[in-house]
Amino acid sequence: MSQVRRHFVTDDPRIVRGILQDTGRHRKTRKRRPVFGRGIVTSEGKAWEAQRALARDFFNAALAERIKAVARSRTEEMLRDWARSGPERACRPEMSRLVLGIMGEALFGVDPRPWEDVFERALAVLLPPKPSTARLLWHRLSRGSSSPYVAALRDLEKLVDWLCRKAPPGSLTRHLADAAIEGIPLREQVSTYLLASTDTTATFLSWTMALWAWNPAAQQRSRTDSAYRDACLQESLRLFPPIWRMARRAEHADPALGIRKGEEVIFLPYLLHRHRDYWTEPDRFRPERFLSEAEAARGRPAFLPFGAGPRACPGAALSLRTGQIVTALVLHRFSWEPASGSFPVPEPLFTLRPHGGVPIRITARST
């Protein structure tokens, strides 16, 4: 008779923040390790500390300036293509290609466009909503298998190996290679940054575009009011946080909470961001909430789009800055409306993607 596994699920922001802060008592689960390896997302202890130190060194003011320039040039290139082609667009594929190009050039110093289709296909296969560690590990070990997982993993490894070979001076890849952390292969570190930086930011931008498509007044106001535009980005992250589910493994029992040693503690930013004790009209798109200091302060404890504590996402500012630049340029050049009648349904994969790709119909603006 199989043993029933218990999980501890909480929507109390105070408990969640305490768990995220106390990395000694609560550690990352290993469910993503077959894909991310021992990169910064899944590693623990000294291996994680060494990678976090490298991230702090690299994610600096110089990178912010590089992101600004690359995001602008790549977005303008995308918009020129929009102007030449038809009015029907699908936001999610467009944003995925755009962000892959931005991160490829800004972080890794290369142009990854030849790999766009391979990368998008690999994401869908390698990062399902709730992977089975045993199943993924079996596929990873079964190198002769013809499963879609093995094919996607091989494609991703080819892309990452290409990034490693092409790494120019000043790139993240070269930065990681020069440090040569013992026991952490360069491929696993690069793969982690590639997957984490592109999928989350592309998803964030896709939802923002969708919210503006279905809220034309907010779209219009965002063209002339930068504070309101930034509030819309925050509201997009609140309603549809790309990282919608987090989990930790309890290293010690917590009798006060009823948590046993070894149990998985699960919390969903998607639910925290809609907690009625912290948010007024939590299911409604109301960017104004982030323009009110009192209202924003009330919701801040339950706002975790990039995690919290020592293991908060090191690229949070990078993602937000990319979003600001991309959306400002798109709003200036185009207006858009839904090309289908229904607002996208969230699809809980590794990130909370909009199902169906967000089809829109664009119209060039006279500027």
Description:
The chain has 367 residues and is α+β, with helices and mostly antiparallel strands. 53% of the residues lie in helices and 10% in strands. The protein is built from 15 helices and nine strands. The chain has a four-stranded mixed beta sheet with strand order 1-5-4-2. The protein has a three-stranded antiparallel beta sheet with strand order 3-9-6. The longest helix has 28 residues, at 186-213. The radius of gyration is 21 Å and the shape is globular. The relative contact order is 0.18. Mean pLDDT is 88; it is low at 131-142.
Outline type = globular
Q: What radius of gyration results from the CA coordinates? A: 21 Å
Q: What is the mean predicted local confidence, pLDDT? A: 88
Strand content: 5-15%
In percent, how helical is the residue content? 40-55%
SSE arrangement, N to C: EHEHHHEHHHHHHHHEEHHHEEEE
Please describe the biggest sheet, giving its number of strands, its sense, and whether it closes into a barrel. 4 strands, mixed
Number of strands: 9
Q: What topology, given as strand order, has the largest sheet? A: 1-5-4-2
Total helical segments: 15
Weakly predicted, low-confidence segments: 131-142
- Counting helices, strands and paired strands, the structural category is alpha+beta
Amino- and carboxy-terminal Cα gap: 69 Å
Name the features.
367 residues; alpha+beta; four-stranded mixed β-sheet; three-stranded antiparallel β-sheet; 9 strands; 10% strand; globular
